[in-house]
User: What shape does this take?
Amino acid sequence: MLSPTKEPLKGSIKIPGDKSISHRSIILASLAKGTTKISNFLNGEDCLRTIEAFREMGVTIDIDQQEVEVQSLGVNELKEPLVPLNFGNSGTTARLMLGLLAGLPFFTTVYGDQYLSKRPMSRVVDPVQQMNGQFYGRQQNNLFPMGIVGSKLTGIHYELPVKSAQVKSAILLAGLLAEGKTTVVESTQTRNHTENMLRAFGADIQIHQNEITITNRKPLTAQQIIVPGDISSAAFFIVAGLIVPGSSITLEKVGLNETRTGLLDVIDQMGATYSINHIHTVAGEKYGDITVEYSQLHGIEIKGDMIPRLIDEIPIIALLATQAKGETVISDAGELRVKETDRIAAVEDVLTSLGATLQTFDDGMVIKGEQDLVGGSIKSYHDHRIAMMGSIASLITKNGVEIDSTDSIQISYPNFFEHLNQVKGEESTES
Ligand code: SPQ
Assistant: This one.
């Protein structure tokens, strides 16, 4: 049982490394000849799946806490894996690797857990098939498990029909191995970590407004990477600090890439008191320290181009909205239905179980605040972001929160409970 807090939240937390950037650092380091050193790597379950996949292809990867060393002979020396690759719960590993494996000269089989096995892959398979990729999966090549017969790919010009950084990245990685030019056009910008890191590794990548073009003219060269803290993980403590009376928390070295900072714009519009200090940039990625104070907030509308900039934060924003005066309307977020679980349905179930009322619809929800949360038993749906949202909610409930399982939190924030207890001023009892 997670009990409500009696005291304001205080202190400073060193937020773990960004999940999206950690995945990409392993992928590009494995394609580059030489030794890449990665600091502040997210040592969580999803990123470890990406590491394991490349180890099966013959890359030497040593990991010591948050420090990783990747020694690769380069993309041309990757070996056919002897066993099926297990991507666990990781959608990012799945989508990015499909793009890459399609262009490598061997056969691979891939699979994931029961949740990943329900997530759509045709969004990647369709464009990469147009590049001559060959996939054999369940339900017309839409679902895992899947076999990939590596082939010679040819470049394409592709307009993304879905606002997805994973699809964009998969096509760029396929383009890195393809003959000719590959161009991806986005109607709304999604997170651009793949582009930033490809550039840092020396790829031939050109960006003109919303068009990204890659050719395979240049081999990648090994790098030193520092991964900023994950703003999607910081989000839980940003919201905690805003909703627990009297709180003041600092989140250190958090990634501030503008394709990810929609939450900061949201809290700004809601009237939050917060500041950002010590800003630096490494390999095109900005980071800094975020301090939030307990604030009186009001509801706002969240939609359109803002959505990809905060898609993973919507569950915790929904909790925030229960504590803001007036109506918060979230729309254009239908993508939430195909995440680790249907996050619109899960948010509705969790908040309702805790005593809140909200209305959901196909691509969003309406929440009227302020509402008192009684607390109770909730299901996490084996979704890390739902489990962490429920844990943060416990702080402001009357009776506390019982979660069926918090194991999924290992996916993106292994020391979440240590940090939660730290800001509560309590000894760590759960991890
Ligand atoms: O890896 P996974 O499971 O897809 O992770 C999630 C998350 O909440 O951690 C989504 F469920 O984040 C995605 C994000 O939603 C990570 C990501 C990336 O690293 O490229 C991009 C987003 O997904 P998408 O489908 O919009 O491209």
Remarks:
- The longest helix spans residues 19-31.
